[in-house]
Every structure is written in structure tokens, then in C-alpha cells.
């Protein structure tokens, strides 16, 4: 298999290596990661995601928090730092693989809850002197169930759906459908985008979760499914209030 083809599976292979060779008490070093990846003809660039993963595992093994900056995409498809470039201070507790992306699962002490971050969007990661927090929260966490609830999205009939989207959600669209997605300005505040998705109640729920900032323009049958789902929810909660 050509080397370029193998490179496409690098994140999958990395997740596989971490799953098979690490746990709460056993860690793998960067040289060992590179050696394992070499078996699949995959190289680890010093600027790549592998070094971020290595830094995360080092912090976990040292029981330390990590600091990093986090970026998102804007409507011009430009990288911009979230929180105006402020540093995130997170206690790393695990890594999760979902939908071709690798995620850090950690405890945010300020928010007092478990949160996840896409590893490829983390910049300038470094280990803190502060000990990790949130052990009790993570001990109660089912990683498989957490990943399923937090990241899973599609399943159903495949269709191309046209959406009207608020500019503020450009990053959400790019993160979900890729930077190659074509976003066409509709007016000064919105753009339209055609996306190929598996239309199901899960997809409709994703659209619903974005509120009035996203509207399904077509096909009409998909828009009708959304209306039916909205009416079903109204009926469901009306019944609960009457009980």
C-alpha cells in the first residue's frame, strides 16, 4: 500500500496503539510510539499530533495538569484562538477516538466538570506544576458511553441537505464537515452550505441543538421531518405537564 495511503490512517493507528498498550498504570514513550507507527509505514513529524499525545501521556504519568491554547475556524476558514488566546488549564484523564478525530478527556476545575478537546486543535501544550484534579469525576465516568453521547452523530439515510447557518457557527460546520465544505454567503449574517449526512433523529437533534442559528432549507422531506420532530417534542412535554 502506498505510503500516502497509510498516512490517512495515522490517527486510527495511533488510537489503536494507545488502546492496546496503555492504561491507567502503563504508558508508552514517544520513541515507542514512533516504532509502532513505523510498522504501518507511518512517520511521526515533530510538529504533528503525536507529540501532543506524548505530552498528554507524560502529564498523566506525572499526575500533572496541562496548559494549552485552543483554536477554531472562522467564516473565512482562518484559524483563530478561542477565548482570545487565553490558556486552558486542564487535568488530563484520558484520550478518546471518535469519527476520525482524537480527543483529550479532562477535568476543567473552573467549570467543575469533565470536558473534551480535539487534540489536533490544541496548540503550545505544556505540563503544569499543579497536580491533577477531578479524580472522583473521572472514576465515575464510562469513557465509551461518554464518547457515544458527546461525539456520535450520524446514522440513517444518506442525503445532501442544504442549511442556512449563522456566521458564528462557521467553526462548528468546518469541524463537522471539513475545511473543504463550500460556505456561500446568504447575507451579512448568514451563509448556506450543502452537506451530505445520514438523516436520522440524531442528525435532527444536532440541528435542533444549534437553535435558531441553523435552518434546514431542503430537501423539503428533511425539513418536514424536522417539523414533525418539533411537533412530537411539543406533544411529549405537554403530556408530561398534564400528568
Would you write up a description of this structure?
Pfam families: WCX, WYL. This protein is α+β, with helices and mostly antiparallel strands and 243 residues long. The protein has 2 domains: 3-151, no CATH class; 157-242, Alpha-Beta Plaits. The protein is 39% helix and 31% strand. It contains 9 helices and 10 strands. The strands form 2 sheets. Strands 1, 2, 3, 4, 5 and 6 form a 6-stranded antiparallel β-sheet that branches. It has a 4-stranded antiparallel β-sheet with strand order 8-9-7-10. A hairpin with a 5-residue loop joins strand 1 and strand 2. The protein is globular and about 55 Å long. The chain starts with a helix and ends with a helix. The model is unreliable at 1-8 (pLDDT under 50).
| Mean pLDDT over the residues | 83
Profile the largest sheet: 6 strands, antiparallel
Kindly state the number of beta strands.
10
- Rg from C-alpha positions? 20 Å
Helix and strand composition category = alpha+beta
Organism: Candidatus Mediterraneibacter tabaqchaliae
InterPro entries: CBASS_pafABC_assoc_protein (IPR051534), WCX_dom (IPR057727), WYL_dom (IPR026881)
Protein name: WYL domain-containing protein
Blueprint (SSEs and pairs):
Elements lengths: L2 H5 L2 H12 L8 H9 L10 H14 L1 E10 L5 E3 L6 E11 L2 E8 L4 E6 L3 E10 L3 H5 L3 H9 L5 E10 L3 H8 L5 E3 L4 E10 L1 H9 L4 E5 L1 H23 L1
Antiparallel strand pairs: 1-2, 1-3, 1-6, 3-4, 4-5, 7-9, 7-10, 8-9
